[in-house]
Amino acid sequence: MNHEDPKPTTETTEVPAAASSEQSTDSVEATTNSAETSVKLPAKQRPRWLIPAIAIVAILLIGGGIFLAVHGHKATAPASTTKSAATSPKKAIPKVTLKGVSYLPAAQTLGDLHFISDLSVYGTDCGGQANQTNCPAILKNSDIHYYKIGTTDKNQPIVVAAYTTGGETSFAYIAIQDASDHYTIIGSLSGLADPTSDWFKSVQKALGPNVSINTTDTLADLDFTDPISIAGITLKFPGDFSGPHGYFVPDLSGIRGSYFNTTVSPSNLKKLGVSGNKTYYQVIVSDKTDYQVKEIYGAQSTFYVASYLLSDPLITSDKPAAISWSTGDTTVKPYTSRSSGCGSAYGYLVAKDLDESSLITAGTGPNGQTLYQLPTSNPLFQDIYQNDYSAGSGLGDDSSALKNLSVDDFQKNHGVFVAKNALGEYVIYLRSDMYSGSGCGKPVIYLYPQAPTHVNVSVGARINKSLPTYPAGGWQDVLAQPSGQLQYKGGRYSSLFWEGLGFGLYPSVSAGTVVKRADAVATIRQQLAEQGLNQKETTDFLDFWQARLPNTPYIRLAWFNTAQVNQLAPLNITPQPQTLIRVFLDFQGLQAPVALPAQTFQAPARRGFTVVEWGGLLQDK
Question: DSSP assignment of 100-163, as one string?
């Protein structure tokens, strides 16, 4: 078992710079926030909006990435605009919500509505040709699928234009259709909330003549709230992520989103309850011998979902909860019940098949719940002690007192305990400073467009270190050259560097290569080439990681591929790259070789705008 470590344990060097539900029939005028223009919705599409709501911003994902960026649609009559006087003061216009919507129980497939006139905004394929202009778009009209999800009280269809790849929705534009077949995109639900952003401007130019964007309003029933209590448990939004809380999926199998790599079968969905017009589900995303990883989602019908976390004071990241231990120990320590490695999946850990009569009462939690210890002979305890604690090998030099603890001392120091929640589950809690968790170590991103291109890059991760500094919302307007050289806010860089904890589920190691310590570097060099990294990227990788390899007779090397890293820490890049290569090394020092299925690699051809990223799991040697 691997689990989230809230703090990376190893310092890194930075990448050097290359150089210095109700509804009214009244009309409403929706005003774009920063462009100082007013966009009038078609009259039959302009109800009077009454209740303020939170805009749900969806994120553009690449390839098989994790979160969704919901974007644009089509219309038939251009919206009328009125220029505001430059000297007139800006007024804060309250966000209003369209209510009284009737939603379908499931998304209904439609024919091609031709929302987008210029698909090149999502990337082009120049095929290595010398002339880099007028290259064909990567996407085709047939790649974009259209759905009806409901109607307004005026019987105006609510439609979605979505592009899905690898089972994941990369963008989804939610729009309202009027009687003249004009489609008005709800920007706050479609990743198009900021009219000053380069992405907004690019998409706006690419839309069909009958499509406009409303940046002020939203659909009330697609707003999720937190905190919320369901079935006796309290749920909240993931607090570390500034992106959307809701996103479109063709059906509920899509709620695997960015967090797990298999479709959700009906047997893994458990209905927890209904609040308002939304249903809340618990999903088993990983099922092991002794434990499960579970996640919780809210859903509007079967096509719009939001991720939730348990609001649990025992695993809060802000301040460790006070526990009254039976031993009289009053030391406050941080605990976690999340998944794994350098990921911080939204799930929590639940013990399976516990013999309740064998549990040992150990204390009382902050909400008065009874805390239990596992017998040291329990298989789950042994799994955690042997595989997660691992003699404290990854705890860091400042934790020497916690290293090499015996089984009894590991238990006495409350390395693991369980507590029953309102659902009757025994949730597993791990002491954060007593297991060998770690952070995503120095992922480095290279951008290779085919022509000088302004690129936006954001990462689905809690970022602790970065170069250049990673602002809220990500690196915006990075000027990338075909050579890979980057210009950003007056500085020049050869790559983008980040370090931290991914928002997605950390993959399990099921295959790899065991080599002698002396052969590790040569093996890594060969395997990086087999995955498509060039000489410079490989040299950069080894410059950082060679000194961090364990000083043990043998080393286990396991690589996560692009799809797995997309789930761990999704990249949101615009314009969308045609080729994405992401490699991530999980390694372990061994005293003796172990049997492990071998990995095979395939280097993708670098076509069009190419993005390459390498990283690894930070841990002590």
Answer: --EEEEEEEEE-----BS-GGGG-B--TT-S--SSPPBSS-GGGEEEEEEEE-TT--EEEEEEE
Nearest to 92, CA basis, from 58, 41, 52: 52
Q: Which of 499, 614, 505 is nearest to 7 (CA)?
A: 499
Show the tokens assigned to 501. 């904890």
444: its two tokens? 């480095």
> Which amino acid is it at 387?
N
Name the token pair of 128: 């290595």
In this prediction, residues 266-280 reach a mean pLDDT of 84
Residue type, 188: S
Given a cut of 80, whether residue 105 has pLDDT beyond it is: yes
Does pLDDT of 620 surpass 90? no
Token digits of residue 555: 């080393």
Q: How far apart are CA 257 and CA 265, in angstroms?
A: 14
Cis peptide, bond prior to residue 227, ω within 30 of zero: yes
Output the pTM of the full model. Answer: 0.59
Least Cα distance to 420 among 384, 372, 380, 379 occurs for: 372
Task: Single out the residue of 529, 514, 601 nearest to residue 562, CA to CA.
Answer: 601
Distance CA 45, CA 26 (A): 9
The CB density around residue 244, as the number of other CB atoms within 10 Å, is 24
Helix (H) or strand (E) holding 520: helix 520-530
Name the pLDDT band for 580 (thresholds 50, 70, 90): very high
- Least confident span in 132-141, 176-185, 254-263, 529-538: 254-263
User: Using omega within 30 degrees of 0 as the cis cutoff, is the peptide bond preceding 452 cis?
Assistant: no
Q: Which long-range contacts (CB under 8 A, 24 or more apart) does 223-228 make?
A: 223/53, 223/54, 223/56, 223/97, 224/56, 224/278, 224/298, 224/306, 225/54, 226/308, 227/311, 228/275, 228/280, 228/298, 228/308
Q: Which of 88, 145, 508 is CA-nearest to residue 293?
A: 508
Distance separating alpha carbons of residues 50 and 94, to the nearest angstrom: 10
**Which tokens sit at 205?**
């130019």
Nearest to 451 by CA among 124, 204, 200: 124
Residue type, 69: A
Task: Select from 302, 583, 617 the least CA-distant residue to 442.
Answer: 617
Structure tokens at 19: 């150089």
439: confidence class by pLDDT, cuts 50, 70, 90? low
> Going by DSSP bridges, is the β-strand pair 183-186/211-214 parallel, antiparallel, or unpaired?
parallel
Give the distance between the most distant pair of CA atoms in the chain: 76
Work out whether strand 278-287 and strand 269-275 pair parallel, antiparallel, or are unpaired: antiparallel
Element (H, E) at 583: strand 579-590
Q: Going by C-beta distance under 8 Å and a sequence separation of 6 or more, which residues neighbour residue 16?
A: 494
Sheet bearing 486-488, strands edge to edge: 491-493, 486-488, 475-480, 453-459, 571-574
pLDDT score of 511: 80
- Concatenating the DSSP letter of every residue in 29-98 gives EEE-TTT-EEEEPPGGG-PPP-S-----------TT-SS-B------SSPPPEEEPPTTSPP--PPP-EE
Q: Is the pLDDT of residue 40 over 70?
A: no
| Over residues 605-609, mean pLDDT | 91
The pLDDT value given to residue 316 = 62
DSSP strand pairing (610-617 vs 440-448):
antiparallel
CA gyration radius, the chain: 26
Measured in whole angstroms, the distance separating CA 230 from the mean position of its chain's CA atoms is 24
Q: Which of 59, 70, 29, 227 is nearest to 163 (CA)?
A: 70
- Please tell me the predicted confidence (pLDDT) of residue 123: 62
